Amino acid sequence: xxxxxxxxxxxxxxxxxxxxxxxxxxxxxxxxxxxxxxxxxxxxxxxxxxxxxxxxxxxxxxxxxxxxxxxxxxxxxxxxxxxxxxxxxxxxxxxxxxxxxxxxxxxxxxxxxxxxxxxxxxxxxxxxxxxxxxxxxxxxxxxxxxxxxxxxxxxxxxxxxxxxxxxxxxxxxxxxxxxxxxxxxxxxxxxxxxxxxxxxxxxxxxxxxxxxxxxxxxxxxxxxxxxxxxxxxxxxxxxxxxxxxxxxxxxxxxxxxxxxxxxxxxxxxxxxxxxxxxxxxxxxxxxxxxxxxxxxxxxxxxxxxxxxxxxxxxxxxxxxxxxxxxxxxxxxxxxxxxxxxxxxxxxxxxxxxxxxxxxxxxxxxxxxxxxxxxxxxxxxxxxxxxxxxxxxxxxxxxxxxxxxxxxxxxxxxxxxxxxxxxxxxxxxxxxxxxxxxxxxxxxxxxxxxxxxxxxxx
Length: 457
Ligand code: SF4
Ligand code: SF4
Ligand code: SF4
Description:
This protein is an alpha/beta fold. The strands form 2 sheets. It has an 11-stranded mixed sheet with strand order 10-9-8-7-6-5-4-11-12-13-14. It has helices at residues 38-49, 59-70, 113-116, 125-144, 166-183, 199-208, 220-226, 236-249, 267-277, 305-322, 370-373, 389-395, 420-423, 437-456; strands at 15-19, 22-27, 32-35, 90-93, 152-156, 187-193, 211-215, 252-259, 283-288, 326-327, 349-350, 355-357, 374-379, 384-387. It binds iron/sulfur cluster (SF4) (3 copies). One iron/sulfur cluster (SF4) binds next to loops. One iron/sulfur cluster (SF4) is lined by residues 99, 101-103, 106, 108, 110-111, 160-161, 194, 215, 227.
């Protein structure tokens, strides 16, 4: 499958993509796409560059231009741009960096303190409470000012397994429920967990969380090999029990599968297994492993991007048949954004030590990337959070508007420069040169466009 041809995206933004059936004209800002022949492509680009050339065009070329114009292909549209005022109505809490698993590719060295650089730490309850107070208050005030903020969100995540700090999680949830009642603003809870939970934890999860993400490597053998317990045993049986319970209870949950080179060809089989065993799951998210953290010292390697793409597309066919929504983070043609994640608007994520980071993967002060992503901390003396406005201003610059490398990419307003933690490791935005993930993002976005064309005829 071919990718885009390097026509410069002059305003109005127009791209030509190529597949086995010929050229596709694509105007991402309008979500417009059309199959075309070479002469139509040339006429469209000539007109987009200089509308005055219409006078000199043949009748056939004029007809093409008019047809495209009527559908909005040449309309100038505002570029996606988000406001980066830091006034969060949601917080992600990392209750602990302890973990009951030792996944072979863990980016955070879960259970080993970031690779033995830092101690195992549990968040202080006061830290979590002040974070909840802040987002609940913001939600209340923003709603009163007419913003479409209907609740505050507490996400439980971790650079470890959050339920290893179960007592703390309970206290956080009960506290947030009290605050919600007091302020008359609903609280919403979600959790990301490895799914290795005891009965009490599972009951609590089912009873209190609105949505859940489970990290599960798709097939029992991969789960046991890649995500062993701290004691070195397989974890499939326990995670399976959790997911079957979530299905029974009707809890919204998604599965995140980290794909290594060894298992990449099995993605279609994983879809079949998941569709059959966990019917009704919200989504199945495939992400190629990124070689960092424990992955650097284990045998796990990132799959070849061509092979990942091919296997993903085969899995997509099975997913349609099985009623499963398949996701890869870089392919999202239906989104128009200028940033890949919330990193540039100061995503409010609190680590077990009370540091505030904009990035889930950068959670230790000893990580050199913390210089970029840490922008606040809990101040014990003040008993509240302090934020660094300069850091927030720097983070707000992390948008695709400032990445020259992405300027000519038809995925620019969908992928938006990809995950900053991965592609900007130790470099500045101007030095961004993409990564092997670009091939996957482009190929899968092109596939989304092709599928829309097929549906629309
Ligand atoms: S469960 Fe999560 S935090 Fe724990 S080792 Fe695995 S990837 Fe790391
Ligand atoms: S920068 Fe990457 S790792 Fe960090 S929060 Fe965003 S998507 Fe996640
Ligand atoms: S990171 Fe790669 S795929 Fe994403 S917008 Fe930039 S060039 Fe395109």
